[in-house]
């Protein structure tokens, strides 16, 4: 049993709209364009597998670009929203967790976007996620992860919370357990025009790039590149996230 928290039907129905409207803009063309360019180039003429494919924010348009895409998704409710966009023949989805679920065939690309590996709340499960990616990759194939870096340098002594979005409809902040490497994302979202706010939170296990590199090594993968965003900006000490690519040796 995975430690990931399960997305409910109610959350799945709101997910696409809220991601498009939030301060992150993850559903916008400006964000999706570079993401799809990056992934399509790595996939080449091969197949791509998205772990935790969700509602298909990335997988559906990547398939529309001509890349054969399959997905693994823990939440049946999220997969049901995806199914409205693409049928099972166009984009097959297997219900299961990304650490252990196996789908048929080999892939030139396995990818995890938008901090999703942090949904696995233990280091052991994250290691198994890398091993599962390696099992699916053909020789020379790549495993890609997009993951934010926890803003711990913004925490003065005694403070445990850092805001990441303060907008008219949404207030979001993270709180940190530095011992367990767990962050909790808190969301206060205004519903309608009556002034009422909906409160939600989700738990995540953050991991540093060096820790991920060790997980990759345990899975038999080698670091190929690390950049700060999908546009290829060099990764540095002030980067707020990274896109990392590991390669399965020939």
TrEMBL record:
Pfam families: Methyltransf_25. GO terms for molecular function: methyltransferase activity. The keyword Ribosomal protein does not apply. The keyword Transcription does not apply. Gene3D superfamilies: Vaccinia Virus protein VP39 (3.40.50.150). Residues 49-141 form the Methyltransferase domain. GO terms for biological process: methylation. Residues 1-26 are annotated as: Disordered. Keywords: Methyltransferase, Transferase. InterPro entries: Methyltransf_25, SAM-dependent_MTases_sf. This is Methyltransferase domain-containing protein. It comes from Streptomyces indicus.
């Amino acid at each position: 049993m995975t430690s990931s928290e399960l997305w409910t039907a109610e959350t799945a129905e709101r997910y696409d709209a809220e991601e498009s409207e939030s301060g992150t803009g993850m559903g916008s063309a400006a964000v999706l364009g570079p993401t799809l360019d990056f992934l399509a180039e790595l996939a080449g003429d091969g197949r791509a597998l998205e772990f935790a494919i969700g509602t298909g924010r990335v997988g559906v348009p990547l398939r529309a670009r001509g890349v054969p895409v399959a997905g693994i998704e823990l939440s049946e409710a999220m997969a049901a929203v995806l199914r409205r966009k693409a049928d099972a023949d166009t984009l097959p989805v297997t219900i299961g967790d990304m650490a252990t679920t196996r789908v048929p065939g080999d892939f030139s690309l396995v990818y995890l976007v938008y901090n999703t590996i942090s949904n696995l709340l233990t280091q052991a499960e994250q290691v198994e996620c890398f091993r599962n990616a390696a099992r699916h990759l053909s020789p020379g194939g790549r495993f890609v992860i997009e993951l934010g870096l926890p803003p711990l340098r913004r925490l003065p002594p005694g403070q445990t919370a850092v805001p990441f979005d303060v907008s008219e409809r949404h207030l979001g902040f993270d709180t940190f357990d530095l011992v367990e490497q767990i962050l909790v994302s808190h969301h206060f979202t205004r519903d309608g025009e009556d002034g009422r706010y909906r409160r939600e939170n989700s738990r995540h296990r953050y991991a540093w790039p060096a820790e991920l590199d060790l997980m990759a090594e345990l899975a038999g993968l080698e670091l190929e590149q690390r950049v700060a965003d999908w546009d290829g900006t060099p990764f540095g000490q002030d980067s707020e996230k990274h896109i990392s690519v590991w390669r399965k040796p020939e």
